[in-house]
Amino acid sequence: MIEAILNYEFLQNAFFSGLIIGVIAPLLGVFIVVRRLSLIADALSHVTLAGIAGSLYLSQSFAGLALLNPIYLGIVASVSGSILIERLRRLYKHYEELAIPIIMSGGIGISAIFISLASGFNTDLMSYLFGSVSAVSRQDLYVVMAIAVVVVLFLVLFFKELFVLSFDEEYAKASGLPAKWIHLLFMVVVALVIAASMRIVGILLVSSLMTLPVAAAMRLARGFKEAIILAIVFGELAVIIGLISAFYLNLAPGGTIVVTSIIILLLVIFIKKIVLKVSIKSKGEEVL
Amino acid sequence: MKKILIELKDVSFQYEYTQALKNISLRVHEGDFLALMGQNGSGKSTLLKLILGLLKPMSGEIKLFGEQANHFKHREWIGYVSQKSNAFNSGFPATVEEVVKSGLVQKVGLFKRYPKDADILVKGALKDVGMEKYLKRNIGQLSGGQQQRVFIARALVSDPKLLILDEPTVGIDRENVQAFYDMLAHLNKHHNMTMILVTHDVDTVSDRVSHVACLNQSIHFHGYKNDFDTISEEQIASWNGHSVRKIH
Ligand SMILES: Nc1ncnc2c1ncn2[C@@H]1O[C@H](COP(=O)(O)OP(=O)(O)OP(=O)(O)O)[C@@H](O)[C@H]1O
Ligand SMILES: [Mg+2]
Questions:
Q1: Which end of chain B is more exposed for a tag (fewer CB within 10 A), N or C?
Q2: What percent of chain A is modeled with pLDDT above 70?
Q3: Which chain A residues have a beta carbon less than 8 Å from that of B52?
Q4: Hey, CA dihedral for A63, A65, A67, A69, is it positive or negative?
Q5: What is the pLDDT of residue B220?
Q6: Localized where (chain A) (predicted)?
Q7: Nearest-angstrom CA–CA distance, A191 and A51
Q8: Which ligand is nearest to the CA of B40?
Q9: Number of helical H runs and strand E runs in chain A
Q10: What is the CA radius of gyration of chain B?
């Protein structure tokens, strides 16, 4: 594999993008999960699909746009979707989750229209749905890197505010934090990460890379920083194992990465159960 | 003249269907220890939320530390323990240390990291509430009373000038309630920390507070605790619309 990476540019693109996404997706995922926004990531990824499908249609119909990288319209769609979700959430204060099906069905609906306009699925679209090892371009890699810089900057600047906001929103507001703005920025950054991740894991599976490693980390972590570190470790493991097996078995990396994440999650749950049992047993014996 | 920290002029507030507060005027001076009392649904929590800026008044005026509430910038001067502070998501992966430290968020300010001495402040605040041993424990795995103490520590850690507590002793056992009120009295006397305390434990707090306010949509009494003691039970009952028992 290492030799192959050194030799083939497309593999470098896929591998380095994967490594970056393996960090930023679970990193933001921790905030998404603890704030119970997991489904929003799903809704946004479907909106991203609308942007991608639209872009593919445009480049098919207009010769001048033939070289347009779909990732850009994907980002535009995803970010607009995130702002729209926020609007809707505020409108339906007591039914915040209503924003999710509205945006999600909107995204799928628009995608369906563009896909049928472009007369059906082609291999390009398949690679956006389930990820691809071979389709990641150098340009895609640069976009992923730029998004990673934005994510890291955002978290460095707002880490403590995001923590307070996630843990106790009322307290955050009482402390005078600009909760609305930080939340909106957060959603935009989530949208960016979704757009960045879809090239590797695919639109349909993006949200799993943001939630599965976090689900595993939360079984083990006592603290927040601990949860973040573990989530990144699990995410990175899933991406590396998933990409390598996708390459050798010629499978869609989205599938292998998600299956690896699920195996990690199951292992964590299983091992924790055993450790807990053993420690309870040994304590019980001490008492006796 | 002592400084006026909180001033409400003719403040009214209405939820969608309920008038919660009517024409409230209230002044809290620096160094006051005010017990805010009233039956369930009388608007105590609503009043605190108005002061904290969580709700906006429909009419009237609120001033904090002499400034209009919506221009007030020093939220870190005000510590807050909410009524349902332990109703958080108990699966949240956070340690006691991380939660208490988050009480410094406004003091530290946007774009900055917690300073090195934050850890010392956190330990000090936890010691004040007798929870220093639980620094690295997961917050969700503590008992309700222990969680409540952690939230009190979070309010104390920034060393606020004004502490607002909405039934903070719910879930805390009786011995520790005494110790907790002693601590509040100490902070009030020796650190000049102004207190607003919503409570139903009239008998426990009565010899520690300096002022009492009785609320039922509007304020029926606000004055020195000694004057409150001279009011008859019948009088108080007439405000609440049912009988009460005063314990001295
Ligand atoms: N979020 C809300 N939406 C609508 N009405 C509310 C809301 N919160 C409180 N109310 C109503 O406003 C009134 C005052 O409520 P508030 O919570 O201020 O009372 P309280 O004095 O704190 O009561 P308790 O002793 O039970 O804590 C009540 O009639 C209540 O039904
Ligand atoms: Mg209340």
A1: N
A2: 97
A3: 174
A4: negative
A5: 81
A6: Cell membrane; Membrane
A7: 12
A8: 1
A9: 12, 0
A10: 18
Q: Which two tokens mark A59?
A: 């480049």
Are A86 and A29 contacting, i.e. CB atoms less than 8 angstroms apart?
Answer: no
pLDDT (mean) for A237-262? 94
Q: Is A218 an 8 Å CB contact of chain B?
A: yes
The per-residue pLDDT of chain A, averaged, comes to: 90
Whether the per-residue pLDDT at A287 is higher than 70: the answer is no
Q: Is 80 exceeded by the pLDDT of residue A18?
A: yes
Q: Tell me the pLDDT tens digit for each residue of B174-212.
A: 888 888 888 899 999 988 999 999 988 877 787 889 998
Place of tokens 């314990």: B247
Rounded to the nearest angstrom, the gap between the alpha carbon of residue B215 and the centroid of all alpha carbons in its chain is 15
Domain boundaries, chain A: 2-287
Shortest-distance atom of ligand 1 to CA B42: 21
Ligand 1 atom at minimum distance from B83 CA: 27
Q: Per-residue pLDDT averaged across A264-274, rounded?
A: 95
Closest CA to B121 of B79, B64, B92: B79
Tokens 């605790």 label which residue?
B225
pTM of the model: 0.90
Identify the closest residue of chain A to B113 by CA–CA distance. Answer: A160
The CATH H-level (homologous superfamily) assignment of domain B4-88+160-240 is P-loop containing nucleotide triphosphate hydrolases (3.40.50.300)
Q: What is the mean pLDDT of residues B8-37?
A: 94
Domain edges within chain B: 4-88+160-240
Residue A226, both tokens: 């601990």
- Alpha-carbon distance of A239 to A234, in angstroms, equals 9
DSSP conformational letter for B133: G
- Taking domain A2-287, whether its CATH number is 3.40.30.10 is answered by no
Residue A79 has pLDDT above 80, yes or no: yes
Tallying the residues shown for chain A, one arrives at: 288
